[in-house]
Design goal:
This protein is mostly beta strands. It has a single domain, classed as Methanol Dehydrogenase, Chain A (8 Propeller). It is 6% helix and 27% strand. It is globular and about 70 Å long.
């Protein structure tokens, strides 16, 4: 951008600092210039739509997978019955060394808390770049940008381990960034789903291979093309005794699919010797999408252990020949948490396929969607379910990893789970039973809808024992813009929309406002918890959407076709934004609730916040907007102004014993440090790409480091890079 253009942008906005919203950067989840919602009475044809019936049938069990779905051509072998895992030894993540970050959330409890205290609010301003490591993963010539690495490295001993956006794994020196080994996974561009992302790898110590032998210590990952891979932590070579030459084909039993429809982006937990896998199933495609099945595999051998298939609840083996796991069931794409003591894995679920229409879901699906499901890792059977949204048609899926804490109560300490949600509701549950530790109320919810045969739930759960991470319901007087004309435009949009609060039911004949929106509240970055002080840190979003169901004729006119159609056009709609919802009577049109002429949101800022909560009193200690206007502004023009206006954010926080909170996440391309006690921002640094990842910290040879993957994010329209950036205080030796 020229200096003259920069000055023009600054002139436009400098007199209106509260207007500097980071809107353009926040709405890349709409993958193209989507159609607006059709508007009043234009979402459906004049004829009444029929009740869904058998004419929307699932594909045949024998329908073939497309070429390339079994990426490594791994032989399937016969269907396997349920079995139990090889007994495991204690893992590094159960009790990480003082200077390590041994798991995605640092420890098995997923606290994102480090006991390191060398860097403090008093000296954090002296942080300097220690090294930069390049993963080598960026869009190539002619490839659309679908990159969003989202990676948090792990550090165990003298190894820093991580994955690239395309699932290469690597070990680097913690002090210099020098590459020790680099495992090339060979994932192809065609296998990228909505996003090329790998949030992290898992460190596992074998109970059968002696120390000093290959694959005593291992690095595991699930891949975008649905493989489970184990490599030796020392050499990066595949563990030949695991699966088929180090790999397991996770498309076995999934039935008809194409590359990119199903993928793994989250690190896989190992719980009592069982590697537990979940998978992202691309949103918005069809009712009979591939299954959301959860499976267990032996961490030593890769042997199949069990499956939890929602519509086959009593069959924990692999499907028989000519059958497949039940299709369209709620998928789980978020990072799971394992509880070795209770033998459970806590699975955050989404809704059944076809997010915005629920009439075709089974009772079994409705019972477990948008929930935390605790699965017994010996049997694959759920022990309990806690549901956060009933009959979800708002895409309020559970994106956050849950955190295990010891919760003090009047009746003694309770082993508890902190459960964040996109709604901004934070639930606290007894992890033994799933019962709320803090009060949860069922409150009335609106049910009026013009969608035939798809009634809404009359009540929805509200966590009344925790502060809500959100703002009051929208009002017409809240509509906002750079000028009175812009505000008027947004008020007109508001009046033309159906809005009855958080659970406004979907409509065919007019748009409805979805707020806080499917990128609202807490998402995959989750929260951080300091057990010493009882302080919980959360960064969160405030981003409404404006949606409308359209009948199949209108969906066809808009070019809304599923990914497995030979005529699929990703520019018409993808995992977010417009969706085909094939096999149902409707497609969906989803747009930001914004002024499309300026690309500014219709609700007033802030759009991103950070909050500290005292878990002893459940009171907010401090709260303020997160993210500056420096890389954001109207018409997509960066303002370069360091005004904290609150930007959308993706990626989580970490807490250190030094009294600091580190977080990237924002669309200003900064990493931030806050004083844990006061919330004051005490340091930031400009990153080479967007910091849409959760940072981590470790110590090596007496020096503390802070690392963040600055890979950028196509979802957030931040600059893409392949750089892991690592900071430290000046070396005084």
């Amino acid at each position: 951008m020229t200096r003259k253009t920069t000055l023009l942008a600054a002139t436009i906005v400098c007199g209106l600092p509260s207007l500097l919203a980071p809107v353009t950067a926040s709405w890349a989840q709409v993958p193209s210039k989507n159609e607006d919602p059709p508007g009043e009475r234009s979402g459906a044809s004049k004829d009444a739509l029929p009740h869904p019936g058998s004419w929307y049938g699932a594909p045949s069990p024998s329908a073939p997978q497309a070429g390339g779905v079994n990426a490594a051509n791994i032989p399937d072998g016969p269907p396997a019955p349920p079995s139990e895992a090889t007994p495991a030894v204690d893992q590094e993540s159960s009790h990480p060394a003082h200077d390590d970050w041994a798991a995605y959330g640092r420890d098995s409890n997923a606290t994102r808390y480090s006991p390191l205290d060398q860097i403090t609010p008093e000296n954090v301003g002296q942080l300097r770049q220690a090294f930069v490591y390049h993963t080598g993963s960026k869009p190539g010539p002619g490839q659309a940008n679908k990159w969003a690495a989202e990676t948090t490295p792990i550090k165990v001993g003298d190894g820093l381990y991580m994955c690239s956006a395309m699932n290469d794994m690597m070990r680097i020196d913690p002090a210099t960034g020098k590459e020790v080994w680099h495992f090339k996974a060979g994932v192809k561009y065609e296998s990228i789903p909505y996003t090329a992302a790998c949030k992290g790898v898992t460190y596992y110590t074998s109970s059968t291979v002696p120390e000093g032998q290959p694959c005593h210590n291992r690095i595991l990952e699930g891949t975008l093309d649905m493989r489970l891979i184990e490599v030796d932590a020392e050499t990066g070579r595949k563990c030949e005794g695991f699966g088929y030459h180090g790999e397991v084909n996770l498309m076995k039993g999934m039935g008809e699919s194409v590359p990119g429809f199903v993928s793994i982006t989250a690190p896989v937990p190992v719980v009592n010797g069982a590697v537990v896998t979940n998978q992202e199933v691309l949103d918005g495609q069809r009712r009979w999408a591939p299954s959301g099945v959860i499976r267990g595999y032996d961490a030593e051998t890769g042997r199949f252990l069990w499956a939890w298939d929602v519509n086959r609840p009593n069959d924990h083996g692999e499907p028989k020949e000519g059958e497949h796991y039940s299709r369209g069931t709620p998928n789980s794409w978020a990072t799971m948490t394992g509880d070795n003591a209770l033998g459970l894995v806590y699975v955050p679920t989404g809704n059944s396929a076809a997010d915005y229409y629920s009439a075709m879901r089974s009772p079994e699906e409705n019972a477990v969607s948008s929930s935390i499901v605790a699965i017994d890792v010996k049997t694959g059977s759920p022990r309990w379910v806690f549901q956060t949204v009933h009959k979800d048609v708002w895409d309020y899926d559970m994106g956050s990893q849950v955190t295990m804490i010891d919760m003090p109560t009047a009746d003694g300490t309770v082993p508890a789970l902190i459960v964040p949600s996109k709604r901004g509701q934070t639930f606290v549950l007894d992890r033994r039973t799933g019962k709320p530790v803090l009060p949860v109320e069922e409150r009335p919810a609106p049910t009026a809808t013009d969608v035939p045969n798809d009634p809404r739930s009359p009540t929805q759960p509200w966590s009344v024992g925790m502060p809500r991470l959100g703002f009051p319901d929208l009002k017409e007087s809240d509509m906002w813009g750079m000028t009175p004309i812009d505000q008027l435009y947004c008020r007109i949009l508001f009046r033309k929309s159906k809005y009855e609060g958080e659970f406004t039911a979907p409509e065919i004949n007019r748009p409805w406002i979805e707020y806080p929106g499917y990128n609202g509240g807490s998402d995959w970055g989750s929260m951080a918890y300091d057990a010493r002080t009882g302080i919980l840190i959360a960064n969160w979003n405030n981003t409404p959407m404006r949606d409308q169901l359209v009948d199949r004729t209108r969906a066809d006119e808009l070019g809304l076709l599923p990914i497995d159609s030979p005529h699929f056009n990703p520019k018409a709609g993808g995992a977010e934004g417009n969706g085909a919802m094939a096999d149902t009577p409707y497609g969906i049109v989803v747009t930001p609730f914004w002024n499309k002429f300026t690309n500014m949101m219709c609700n007033k800022p802030p759009y991103g916040m950070i909050t500290a909560i005292d878990m002893h009193t459940r009171k907010v200690l401090w709260q303020h907007p997160l993210g500056s206007a420096r890389a954001n502004g109207p018409w997509g023009l960066p303002t370069y102004l360091p005004l904290t206006i609150g930007t959308p954010n993706n990626g989580g926080p970490v807490i250190t014993a030094g009294g600091l909170v580190f977080v990237g996440a924002t669309t200003d391309n900064l990493i931030h440090a806050f004083d844990l006690k006061t919330g004051k921002e005490v340091w930031n640094a400009v990153l080479p790409g967007g910091g849409q990842a959760t940072p981590m910290t470790y110590e090596y040879k007496g020096r503390q480091y802070v690392a963040i993957m600055a890979g950028g994010h196509h979802f957030m329209m931040t600059p893409v890079s392949d750089e892991l950036v690592v900071y430290a205080l000046p070396d005084t030796h």
